[in-house]
Design a protein that fits this description.
The structure is a homodimer.
Chain A lengths: L5 H4 L1 H16 L5 E3 L6 E4 L4 E11 L11 H17 L4 E11 L5 H18 L2 E4 L1 E4 L5 E11 L14 E5 L4 H22 L16 H8 L5 H10 L5 E4 L4 H12 L2 E5 L7 H9 L4 H8 L5 E5 L4 H4 L5 E8 L5 E4 L5 E3 L22 E3 L19 E2 L16
Parallel strand pairs in A: 4-5, 4-6, 10-13
Antiparallel strand pairs in A: 1-2, 2-3, 3-7, 4-7, 8-11, 8-12, 9-11, 10-12, 13-14, 14-16
Helix pairs in contact in A: 3-4, 5-6, 5-9, 5-10
């Protein structure tokens, strides 16, 4: 048998190969509307509703570090990132299963903390945790969550419905989670250095004042799925033409929406909702905050497109920003930067990890859904902004997103 | 925070504590009929049908060893053990998600083999694989499968419906999977010893003739979920009064059924369907084949109870054995051995791993569902048969299972 490294063929090719293998099984479920390739699989229910299903695997040292992640937060985040996938279909989450692989340095109290976090946010989202599996693990902690939701067939939102002329919107703010991760990773190193220098130190006495970074750290450790936005859409009868949750960064997700919808897009850097807290951290790390927003990931905001006719319906939802416009596929996927230069986002990396020179499999840094959707977003692409193709000299530099200003 | 080892409180107490934590979330799903505590969670669908959901986490070195497990078999088994949980509810499996955590020594071809196995048996079971998550893992291979099925409300079968007087039945044969595991574990050691003695050996040239053990090895590596039995039940209109799949061994599963149904049971050792192949292997290891059947596990047969009135309906299903009778709770859970002695199965270990003296968390050997259901069954209890309470001197030694002979 030949031995092909995943990095040799790339993430999308791997997913395509796996999808080919399981395609013959998909045809056995006549009610299956969508298998691999979106935030959720979609199955018809008898009453005209659709069931949506998503699953995420969180693995220690790949998706989280126990030195910097309180267990209660970890349990909460495991639920939230799954609820976020349900939200991305414009659906209502109903129930989840939570499986845990436990390494032998985990106590009963620690397991309880994970479940307390999961149960706390499950209550907030109105979902039930209905079961799971608990197993030993010889290595690290593993959490696997599967979530099931429901939506009227008339309201389901795929990645594939965006049309030229649609407005591109994003909830909340972006890039902040990655800024928080940067701070946590630095703190982790400081902690390890301190312990190494003081081998006799009582580790429980270690303290650090991270209060100035609190907003960013909180966003990273305790992201909230935007179920409020989905509720709003349902209340005002707004069905986005396409939607995806921001687990990889706005730039990466925009490319997914465009590829799935066979359209192009132009977003404007100045419209990206990036908080000053995020900019301050990126400045501190001598990074570009825009890159955190585009490719940092784990914000779990919703990136979606709406018909311009629905613009008024959106106006009473305050926590949303229109950042650009859908264009024909021939226009490519671009961002107009602060200098009026159109940057080709498709030539920038940030999502197709396995094809990058650096082997991210050895870099604590690569998790990818079957849908080509990364949930790890650790450090992997914030340094790639320099590779962007500043192709410049575009002559259109008028405001492209209609009248609404953020 | 105090640090309580799982072994200090035991598996059931841990599950109870986790169940208490998530109970407040369960009440949020008004359609939830059953959360933690059976082979599947059960949710009402709009058309009067019930949805059943189960999930299993398979972790390298806990549930499988890549030295002795072909990847194609591993993918197949991951699906089969989940389908088996759906069968245990008397339900029809519909679709599954398959998530994989990949260590960096795994090639594209190896991942494809896992999926080929999963897809192959998914086709046999008539289910669709609708999605999943693929992630890096810094240590070992992790497979998480969640499966969804459906059943008419009138046909759902829980662990809790057995009544005194019911007949206790098991499909196929039992103990064989554990016999296969014993052979594989011995072979694994031989292999490791050979490699250690011949460090320059080309490992791919290693061969072993295990053909005489083929039936047992096949049962262990490629168990088949008994979807045929469920189809038969539906065809003849037979609804078992209780059912569970044999992942832990007939003795352990019988105790689950009795605890959940609040009944007692008496099974007869001579009626246990144990093949000569299984006995030959247990003899070779100087073990007792009956113990393999009672506590070895991973047979993935169905253990169920039926009303004596349904006896005739069962008669045209050939691959089933009546092994005993349900009694009042006060009678305990016992097996009448070949000498006519009633052995108390409840005092034997084999399922409550964490309370055993030996810390199985350090023994490659403990995986347990929220439902108190073990899926690892590696070596853990086959040596415990001697602890059985041979309380002897029972005066009832007539045939307890009615007229049908196996």
């Amino acid at each position: 048998m030949s031995f092909t490294r995943i990095s040799e063929i790339g993430e999308f090719a791997l997913i395509d190969r796996l999808a080919t293998l399981i395609a013959p099984t998909e045809s056995q479920l006549s009610t299956l509307k969508k298998g691999i390739g979106d935030d959720c699989a979609v199955i018809e229910l008898p009453n005209g509703k659709l069931q949506v299903v998503s699953t995420d695997l969180l693995i220690e040292q790949i998706h989280f570090d126990l030195l910097t992640t309180p267990l209660e937060h970890l349990g909460a985040k495991a639920i939230s990132v799954n609820v976020s996938d349900i939200c991305a279909m414009n659906a209502k989450p109903l129930y989840a299963t939570v499986s845990i692989g436990l390494s032998n340095n985990i106590s009963v109290e620690m397991i309880e903390q994970i479940y307390e976090g999961a149960a706390r946010v499950a209550k907030q989202y109105g979902i039930a945790i209905v079961g799971g599996d608990t197993s030993a693990s010889i290595t690290g902690l593993v959490i696997s969550v599967t979530i099931v939701g429901e939506v009227d067939a008339s309201k389901i939102t795929y990645r594939s419905g965006a049309k030229a002329g649609d407005l591109i919107c994003v909830t909340g703010d972006v890039g902040r989670s990655f800024a928080g991760l940067k701070v946590l990773m630095r703190e982790r190193q400081t902690m390890l250095d301190t312990f190494a220098e003081n081998p006799d130190m009582d580790k429980s006495t270690y303290t650090a004042d991270l209060s100035e970074y609190q907003k960013a750290i909180e966003k990273h450790l305790l992201p909230k799925a935007r179920i409020d936005a989905v509720k709003f859409f349902h209340e005002v009868g707004l069905v986005p033409t396409s939607m995806i949750d921001v687990s990889d960064g706005v730039g990466s997700e925009l490319k997914h929406l465009c590829r799935n919808s066979q359209v192009g897009a132009l977003i404007e850097e100045s419209k990206l909702p990036i908080l000053s807290e995020t900019r301050e951290i990126s400045d501190e790390f001598e990074d570009d905050g825009t890159t955190y927003a585009l490719f940092g990931g784990e914000d779990y905001e919703l990136l979606f497109t709406i018909s311009p006719n629905d613009f008024d319906k959106l106006s009473s939802f305050k926590d949303v920003h229109i950042i650009g416009k859908v264009l024909d596929a021939s226009s490519g996927v671009k961002m107009r930067d602060l200098f009026g230069t159109d940057i080709d986002l498709q030539s920038a990396s940030g999502f197709q990890h396995f094809t990058e020179e650096e082997d991210l499999f050895e870099d604590d840094d690569d998790a990818h859904d079957h849908d080509g959707h990364d949930h790890s977003a650790h450090n992997h692409s914030a340094h790639n902004h320099n590779e962007h193709n500043h192709n410049g000299h575009d002559d259109e530099d008028e405001d492209i997103w209609g009248e609404r200003k953020n």
